Amino acid sequence: MPMQPDDYPGINPGKNALLIDMSNDKIRQLTEEAIKKLPDAIGVNNHMGSAFVQNKNKMEAFLSVLKEHNLFFLDSETTSKTIGWRLAETDGIRFARRNIFLDNVKNVKYIEKQLFKAADYAKLHKIAIAIGHDRPLTEMALAQTRNALSKLVDFVEVKTVIDNQIK
Questions:
Q1: CA–CA separation, 106 vs 49, rounded Å?
Q2: Cβ of 51: how many Cβ atoms within 10 Å?
Q3: Rounded to an integer, what distance in angstroms lies between the CA atom of residue 158 and that of residue 70?
Q4: pLDDT, tens digit, 9 for 90 and up, residues 65-121
Q5: Are the C-beta atoms of residues 107 and 137 closer than 8 Å to each other?
Q6: What is the pTM (predicted TM-score) of this model?
Q7: 129 and 96 in contact (C-beta within 8 Å)?
Q8: Beta strand segments in the chain, E
C-alpha cells in the first residue's frame, strides 16, 4: 500500500497513497478499494511510508481495515521509527518485519549481494524476510542466484513465516 514518505511531496509515493493529512475515513476507503482490486491478497505491506508508519492515529485506521479482512501486515520498516508492526501486534493482527531490502540500489550485482546477505541473516536467525520490487534487474538477480541460494536456505512464502511465528 503506498504511503507518505518523510520527504513528501518531494518524493511521490504514487496514486491513491495514504497521506497523513487525510481523514481516517478516507484512509479506510482507499485501503478498502486497494483490497477490492486484489481480492486474493493475504496481506499488505507498506510501499514507502516512512512518515505514515510513525503516525499512530493514521496507522490504526489503516490496520483496522486489515483486521476486518483478516490480512497480515508486513512492515517494510522504511524507518527505524516505525510503529506499524508494534500496533499490529497490540491489535492482534498477524504481522512480520522486513529484514533485508533487495533492490534499493538498481544494480544486479548489488541485488545479488543483498540476496546472499538475506541468506546469511536467515542462517543466523532461522528466518529472513527480504523485500524487493517487480523489476527486471531484481528478477535477473534472483534468476542468477537461485541455484546457489537454494543450497543455503529454503525459500518460503512470507505467509509461512507469519503463520509459524512464536507468539
A1: 20
A2: 20
A3: 15
A4: 999 999 999 999 999 999 999 999 999 999 999 999 999 999 999 999 999 999 999
A5: yes
A6: 0.93
A7: yes
A8: 2-3, 43-45, 47-48, 72-75, 95-97, 100-101, 130-131
DSSP label at 52? Answer: G
Domain boundaries, the chain: 1-98, 99-155
Across 72-85, b (16+ Cβ under 10 Å) vs e yields: bbbbbbbbeebbbb
Look up cell 518524493; give the residue. 11
**CA–CA dist 4, 17 (Å, integer):** 7
- Report yes or no: 67 and 91 within 8 Å, Cβ to Cβ: yes
Contact 78, 5 (CB under 8 A): yes
**Interval 22-69: pLDDT, tens:** 999 999 999 999 999 999 999 999 999 999 999 999 999 999 999 999
Angstrom distance (rounded) from CA 54 to CA 83 = 6
Q: Provide the 8-state DSSP code for 115.
A: H
Q: Which CATH superfamily is domain 1-98 in?
A: Glycoside hydrolase/deacetylase (3.20.20.370)
CA 85, 23, 51, 99 dihedral sign is: positive
**Per DSSP, what are the bridge partners of residue 97?**
75
Residue type, 18: L
